[in-house]
Design a protein that fits this description.
It contains 19 helices and 22 strands. It is an alpha+beta fold. Among the domains are: about 35-235, no CATH class; about 255-345, PDZ domain (Pdz3 Domain). Helix 6 (about 120-140) runs antiparallel to helix 8 and helix 14 packs parallel to helix 15. The protein is globular and about 75 Å long. It starts with 5 loop residues before the first helix and ends in a 13-residue tail after the last helix.
Length: about 700
């Protein structure tokens, strides 16, 4: 990374095969910083991944990884756990006793393959085939002539909290519930019971066929993927098919629905809605929604529970102007199952650009005016003349002309983006100063700073990359609030964290941000084995702490927007631990900052005032109530309740147009922006600890 900003170097390597500027932007956005789950287990096979090449692949991972440098017993154990999860993601295939048999076999796989011996994979294959055939037979028995619908069924879809079955009777009961849920899904889609039964029987026949086809040689891909995921959540192996598929996906995502998907215990989960995409514009979808069926225009829906993510992505993709209908399962205060028809289209660049709106308050006869800058991502592309830094700079100039009393920078739905843009944008509020550092697997620390503020920081263990200094006349020096959430990740955390460390802004939001403080590099592999992403460094804030796992804590905490307990780095498997380096809070000499630092007394006062308001606010009370009800369900779906909700909706309850539904989503989010403005008002009204009462010029 020497000689270039770390983000720039990786961006160029990853974008080398892209031809369109907007493609380069999205490829960088999703792979460099913003992607939460780069690759999850799939069943495709790498034609050129042989047993004798696996040791070389693992050595390459270990040689490049930030923290893991050798095959330890713990690493082997984690790889085995990931392998089992990939073989039976929904815990409907294997018995608890199978795990006892498979664990030592798989442990031996990761030991013996270093000598090029993968023979023990045959034993794993034999167990999988036997269990798949058993499941097929059990389902055919369940769906026999005496089959009857059972509205009393309750199914725990949180697979992590569901144990493996111990007996055939327990497996029969679990499959009965799973099949009932899948039958119910078909019935609610308008398919009659007889046809739904046929579909389910055929589904399990196909499942057996896929397991049989997944011979020991094809299991090598799972071995490689599981080893990569055992290193940390963002390190991954991409088979040749997936490596090429990634390129296609990044191109077609511009003519798709605009959503990042992952596979979680048999369900396809929406991880992120890309600003300007069809999914985001529809106003229908949220992160953590589960996709349980997919229907092409004019066709019946296809059940996708427990199906291969690679195949599901292909079903959802399509040409601009065509429609795809996703059947969504959402668990909040009530369990919802609904259809969302999305128009496949190109990403609307205007939708993902920074925007400003204005809000006013009147106190003691004085009118206060505030600007709210919504920044969905840290975008930028020189050839396309796109830059979030330039756009926000222009918006701040406009805000000055509007004589605002304060600014809210909304990063609450910002999943990341380009590092250079984030660093320069931070300079619009700080002027000169060190913004972020990376520490690589050799211990080399690289600091990115705006202007000459980092002079004197460079030594044998640190190098400094200096970006252009901001003209002091372009620096916004007035009251500043940064709105965050657990969806704020990577570049968002760098900006919010730097502004917090310099005591420049008040961070308002949920308890903490996502907590992704790691850097990944994507490289192709030799012998046409595909590609690999490896975590090679960690990010550090000016105060010396990493955002890894802990994220950026809010100074003024607001209720959870919707159920987000399972969103964040700590919810992923084997996240790297947080670290710290020496601080680099650099300002030139003893120059007094252009702004008035936010002190602890002010933060305490603002937090107390906000708590009092939130406690009396009816909208926040409803949000808290709904979240408690959703958490109380603990992942359990009651089919009778699901059917009741569907019947109520279909009994004349108007769903609303796409515009109305999107407005409803905005309304649900409005209390958080509104409270951020209230915090600003507290900062500028007479008597506050900051005591800023004049408009910013």
């Amino acid at each position: 990374m020497s000689g270039k900003a770390p983000g720039d170097n990786q961006c160029n390597r990853k974008a080398s095969f892209g031809s369109k500027g907007v493609f380069r932007f999205w490829f960088r956005r999703l792979l460099l910083i913003g992607l939460l789950v780069l690759l999850l287990p799939v069943s495709s096979v790498a034609d050129n991944l042989s047993c004798r090449r696996l040791p070389l692949l693992m050595e390459r991972f270990l040689a490049n990884h930030y923290a893991m440098k050798s095959m330890t017993g713990e690493l082997k154990m984690h790889a085995v756990d990931q392998m089992i999860k990939s073989l039976d993601p929904s815990k409907t295939l294997l018995y608890e006793s199978d795990l006892e048999k498979l664990r030592p076999i798989l442990q031996n796989v990761y030991t013996s393959l270093q000598a090029g011996d993968c023979a023990s994979l045959t034993q794993v294959y034999d167990v999988l085939v036997a269990r798949a055939r058993e499941n097929e037979a059990l389902v055919k028995k369940i769906l026999g002539p005496d089959y009857r619908l059972d509205d009393t069924v309750e199914l725990n879809i949180d697979v992590r909290k569901r144990p493996y079955v111990k007996t055939t009777d327990q497996k029969h009961e679990l499959l009965r519930k799973v099949v009932q849920f899948q039958i119910e899904n078909a019935l609610l889609a308008g398919i009659d019971l007889a046809e739904a039964r046929k579909q389910q029987i055929h589904r399990y026949e196909l499942q057996t066929m896929r397991v049989v086809e997944r011979n020991p040689e094809k299991l090598l891909t799972s071995v490689a993927e599981s080893f990569a995921l055992a290193l940390d959540p963002h390190t991954s192996y991409l088979s040749p098919e997936n490596f090429e598929d990634l390129r296609i996906h990044m191109q077609l995502s511009l003519e798709g629905i605009g959503a990042s998907l992952s596979s979680d215990n048999g369900f396809t989960v929406i991880e992120e809605l890309i600003p300007g995409g069809g999914a985001e514009r529809s106003g229908l979808l949220k992160p953590k929604d589960k996709i349980i069926a997919v229907a092409q225009e004019g066709e019946r829906p296809v059940d996708v529970i427990d199906r291969d993510l690679h195949a599901i992505v292909k079903m959802i993709r399509g040409k601009k102007g065509t429609k795809v209908t996703l059947t969504i399962l959402r668990q909040e205060e009530k369990t919802e199952r609904f259809d969302a028809t999305i128009l496949r289209d190109k990403i609307d660049i205007k939708e993902q650009q920074a925007k400003i709106t204005y809000d006013t308050r009147t106190v003691d006869g004085r009118l206060y005016r505030f600007g709210v800058i919504d920044l969905p991502s840290f975008y930028g592309d020189e050839k396309e003349n796109k830059s979030c830094y330039e756009d926000v700079k222009a918006l701040l100039a406009e805000a000055r002309r509007q004589h605002v009393d304060g600014i809210v920078l909304d990063l609450s739905r910002n999943g990341g983006g380009l590092l250079r843009e984030a660093v320069r944008l931070t300079g619009l509020f700080l002027g000169e100063g060190g913004i972020v550092a990376t520490k690589d697997n050799r211990g080399q620390v690289t600091i990115l700073a705006n202007g000459s503020a980092a002079a004197g920081m460079e030594d044998g263990e640190r190098q400094v990359i200096t970006l252009p200094a901001e003209d002091p006349r372009g620096v916004y020096t007035g009251p500043l609030v940064v709105l965050t959430s657990r969806l704020s990740a990577s570049a968002s955390e760098i900006v919010a964290g730097a502004l917090k460390d310099y005591h420049r802004a008040v961070i308002v939001g949920q308890d903490h941000t996502f907590g992704k403080g790691s850097v990944q590099v994507l490289t192709p592999l030799p012998w046409e084995m595909g590609g690999m992403t490896v975590t090679t460094a960690l990010y550090f804030l000016p105060g010396g702490k990493s955002t890894q796992k802990t994220g950026v804590e809010a100074d003024v905490r607001l209720p959870i927007w919707f159920i987000l307990e399972d969103i964040g780095e700590t919810a992923l498997d084997y996240p790297l631990p947080a670290q710290a380096i020496s601080p680099f809070l650099g300002v030139p000499g003893n120059v007094v900052p252009l702004w008035k630092p936010v002190g602890q007394s002010l933060l305490t006062e603002l937090a107390a005032r906000s708590r009092a308001r939130v406690a009396k606010d009816a909208k926040f009370a409803e949000i808290i109530k709904n979240n408690k009800e959703a958490a109380g369900k603990k992942g359990v779906i009651r089919l009778a309740d699901l059917r009741k909700e569907m019947e109520k909706d279909n009994g004349g309850k108007k769903k609303g147009t796409s515009a109305e539904l999107k407005q409803k989503a905005r309304d649900q989010y409005a209390p958080f922006v509104n409270e951020s403005v209230n915090v600003l008002l507290d900062m500028v009204t007479p008597g506050s600890a900051l005591n800023v009462s004049s408009r910013v010029q």
